[in-house]
């Protein structure tokens, strides 16, 4: 019985650590999640205005701007990865 309780406690500790790690990762990169949210909201509002207020037939083309958000995302994570890599200097013999 004690061994079962220990396993339950260990399991809860592992789950707790995973939740805390995920929470940290999300809070660390919250700017990207906000950027995607703003990009989707802006595209949806723009499509609505174009389609229903201005009667533009191909208002859905506004969604083709989403790759721009993808490029910004790639640049952000690329720069972040470079900052996190340790500096390695070549050793001269």
Average pLDDT level: 83
DSSP strand count: 0
Radius of gyration: 23 Å
Query: How do the SSEs run, as a string of H and E?
Result: HHH
| Silhouette | flat
Helix content: over 70%
Domain count: the total is: 1
**Helix count?**
3
Distance between the termini: 62 Å
Strand content: under 5%
What oligomeric assembly is this protein in? single chain
Q: Which residue ranges are poorly predicted, with pLDDT under 50 across at least 5 consecutive positions?
A: none
Which structural category fits the helices and strands? mainly alpha
Biggest sheet details: none
Outline the secondary-structure elements:
Blueprint: H1 2-28, H2 30-53, H3 66-84
Keywords: Membrane, Transmembrane, Transmembrane helix
Transmembrane segments: 31-52, 58-77
What does this structure look like?
This protein is mainly α and 93 residues long. It has one domain. The protein has helices at residues 2-28, 30-53, 66-84.
Features of the shown structure:
0% strand, single chain, mainly alpha, 3 helices, 93 residues, 75% helix
Summarize this, please?
By secondary structure, this protein is mostly helical.
């Amino acid at each position: 019985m004690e061994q079962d309780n220990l396993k339950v406690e260990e399991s809860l500790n592992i789950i707790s650590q995973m939740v805390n790690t995920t929470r940290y990762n999300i809070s660390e990169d919250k700017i990207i999640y906000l950027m995607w949210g703003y990009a989707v909201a802006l595209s949806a509002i723009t499509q609505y205005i174009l389609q229903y207020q201005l009667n533009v037939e191909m208002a859905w083309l506004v969604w083709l701007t989403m790759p721009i958000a993808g490029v910004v995302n790639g640049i952000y994570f690329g720069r972040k990865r470079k900052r996190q890599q340790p500096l390695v200097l070549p050793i001269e013999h």
